[in-house]
Request: fold
Amino acid sequence: MSPIVAQVAKQVEAHLKHEGTGHDWEHIRRVWQNALKLAETEKANIQTLSLAALLHDVDDAKVTKDVTSEEKLPKAREFMANAKVSSDEIETVCTMIKSMGYRKVLGGIRPTLIEAQILSDADFLEAIGSIGIARVFTYSGHMDRQVFLPDWLPGASISQEEYLHGKSHAVNHFFDKLLKLRELMFTKAGKAEAEIRHQRLITYLENLFEETNAPAEWSKLLKSYRS
Ligand code: ADP
Ligand code: NI
Reply:
């Protein structure tokens, strides 16, 4: 690992160690690890990818409670300046971070740099599978959202505004976002891993609907995501 990456990692670890919305240091570490693994079969600048992975959530509005931070990325810029990252690389990393996330997808924005596409895949993998299930309920608890309200079915589509401020229950989030991520992967390795994790979501929801005696509409809704 380059000394620059190590220095940024140290700052991010200290900053996010006690974060409680699901964007803690362990999430960052896993995304970084996922990204490096996916990069093994792609041509990518590993330092730029690592910096963006480490810094992708430090200015997220869920973490900072300030909507303007996502545009300006003050913490990411501060940590990179402390580690003497070149100004060109700082701008590249900021461009990458601003092109990521499901809310951006809803707004029609998708990453174009290969490093940003790898990172997007790595971050989306964290939202699905076993770890993704854990993170939905962590975040829902943090937002005082219920686990499952069987009478409240998901809408066909969701706006950026609803995604951010809607008061829906945790199971709807699977339909609003998680079950759609498989189709949004860029890399071959990311697609393969997303397929495995997607099936884990399906199994989990099937079991949940059975245990809770949920109305048949729920299993019907799940059908379109099965294959
Ligand atoms: P990430 O850090 O993976 O980019 P987000 O910042 O969008 O993801 O959200 C962090 C975690 O919280 C994710 O696992 C996501 O699925 C979950 N989450 C986001 N929005 C909601 C919501 N409205 N209800 C429940 N869980 C949510
Ligand atoms: Ni993230």
About this structure: The chain has a mean pLDDT of 95. Residues 188-211 form the longest helix (24 residues). Residues 23, 27, 31, 56-57, 123 surround nickel (II) ion (ligand 2) (CB under 6 Å). The chain is about 65% helix and 0% strand.
